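Quick one, T. Sequence first:
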Amino acid sequence: MQNVFKFLFVLPSLFFGIKVLARPLSASLVLAERTSLAELADNVMNPDSPRHQIYYTPEEIRDLVAPKIMDYTTALRNLRSQGFSIAFQSPSHLLITVKADHKVFEKVFNTKFKFIDNKYHVVLRRPKIPSNLSLISSISGLSNIQMYRPLYKKFSEGTEFVGQPGILPEKIKKAYGLNALYNSGLTGKGQHIAIATFMNFFLEDISQYFELIGLSPTPSVEKITFNGTPPFDDISAPETELDAELAGMIAPGASLHVFTSAENSEQGELTLFTTILDDNRSKIISYSWGMCETSVSPDHRVNMDKVFARAIAQGVNILAASGDTGSDGCTNGTAVAVWPAIHPSVLSVGGTSLYFSQDGSKQEVGWSGSGGGVSAFYNLPTWQSVFKTPFLRRSYPDFAFNADPGTGQGIWIRSSSTSAPGWIQVGGTSIGAPQWAGYLALVNESRIEKELPTLGYLNPILYNSSPNDKRNIFTDVIKGRNGAYAAGEGWDAVTGWGTMKASEMLDFLIAR
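Structure tokens:
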């Protein structure tokens, strides 16, 4: 009898040529703000504000920014009544992820989908938000075809950690003046660094790396998964592992929290950063993924404007790799920026080619692969307002770090994915972002020891510093080219202000 019912159900579809398929989808709903997150960000950055360097908690943000609880509860009830299930609620009450068959989305939001290869979907008609869901300001996830790429460069591999060619951890620490900080007792103790990433990885690779390089103390490492179970990807895993390994190598006393999303898409990025900010332990985020800026949807830019403003309001610095294809962020032969490194609320880390002389002194030139240039969308932030043509919109990177594996100064990381037999030598701006993140953990530890708040958003502090301060805290990289732009004195679109002088910069940042 059961087979008869199956036949009767399928028969009309066969007879009329109709194929009935359920297409379950999820989307994240961004809720309207009562108070602008950008206003809260301004409050903590403004020296004249009573909230200067007094960072907001997620609870305060919910109370000040999110919809009123009665309106929020009503919105949840209306979503459920129209066929949606609630998959995720941000404790901030600013983001809700819902699931339903695609037909529900099409009906409720008056839109239409196209499906590609049973894996991707794109929205064909801009959704309209009904009046009974007016708390929703935008929807993320109706298209998932845009994916982020990891920004590291593999140079060589080996079954043993030989260190040559390549640069050993102790050499990189010496090159940037970090040993003085360690000698003073700084390790990043008590600090938390979030690694923002996609897909799965081998947690044991990270702990083995710390053990095999003889790191002491050893950072604690935690994996936090969401948006489902992250699949393993052979290309992505080394990115995640190197981010955690290099952040911990610089800040061995810190706690590392690897937030990895199963969804690599604009929706995945939105929920990734929201989850980290909801967690509220990490004042530093390292992010080494990106895409062409002009490929990002307008709605996603607006959504991430809010999320990145929230990061500043909570006292969080985001270190983003500037990209590994020079000024050609779209890899199509044009000068286009890389997202999100170009965003005015993140710290963009470019790359250098590092060389050592016979006497052990270092020289650096701008790496040809260092992402840098000018935004197609974002105006110059106030702290870049003195820039001249062609830098008339937000320009990046902000500073740099060793990135070129081809000089023989790439860094070895531990990764046992199938594309790596145990150790691989890597470069790219991906190796700079986590090492800068580790450095800022040392800075925050020192500030707390001196009964100061952790460091607020760093860019206004650096850009507004005097020319003499910049000469003292940065090594200005004046040679090299990344395609459309050349390195030169002062700020440039290859290496930003240059690379850190760790001890001098620490002293400068303690005084701020």
